[in-house]
Amino acid sequence: MALRAAATRSMFAGLAPPGLRRFCSTASANSFMPPPIAAMGNGEGTPGREQAPPSTNLFVSGLNKRTPSEKLREAFSQFGRVVDARVVTDRVSGYSKGFGFVRYATIEEAEKGRVGMDGKFLDGWVIFAEYARPRPERTPPQNMSNSNGYNSYGRE
DNA sequence: CCTGAGCGG
């Protein structure tokens, strides 16, 4: 039955997430192999590539360019209370950059949502959820003109 | 239109 082969290809041609190529670079697309969970033999010699510490801010990457923030919040609200969910869009082009940020109410929910949505499918694309890096929202750590000393760090 | 590594206003 050659018809079945054609039908199978047609099915995969509709929702073939190109994001899967990150798992297997030179592997056959016909074989399902587990992701190479890195080589844990470096110990602590991976500076720059270290993930951010646990926080309520979640960095979601691998999103579809047409995925709205509502879809993100809806998908992540299944694991916890999403305080804020935003898909990063460009100011000049106005289109999504392919990643977004999801802020949970507590770190526990953020952890559950991160593990629960990391490696899941969204709009036919494999998304990756990890902790966002501590980044100042407005006031830079430089120039302390204010005697208050309040730092608007997105932590917690 | 949005082609895909990536940390936003």
Give a verbal description of the structure:
InterPro entries: Nucleotide-bd_a/b_plait_sf (IPR012677), RBD_domain_sf (IPR035979), RRM_dom (IPR000504). Keywords: RNA-binding. It comes from Hibiscus sabdariffa (roselle). This is RRM domain-containing protein. Residues 134-156 are annotated as: Disordered. The protein has 156 residues and is an alpha+beta fold. The chain has a domain at 57-131: Alpha-Beta Plaits. The chain has three helices and six strands, in the order H-E-H-E-E-H-E-E-E. The protein has helices at residues 2-14, 69-76, 107-117, and strands spanning 57-61, 82-89, 96-104, 121-122, 125-126, 128-131. Strands 2-3-1-6 form a four-stranded antiparallel beta sheet, with helices on one face. Strands 4-5 form a two-stranded antiparallel ribbon. A hairpin with a 2-residue loop joins strand 4 and strand 5 (125-126). The longest helix has 13 residues, at 2-14. It is globular, with a radius of gyration of 19 Å. Mean pLDDT is 73; it is low at 1-43 and 143-154. The structure holds one DNA strand of 9 nucleotides.
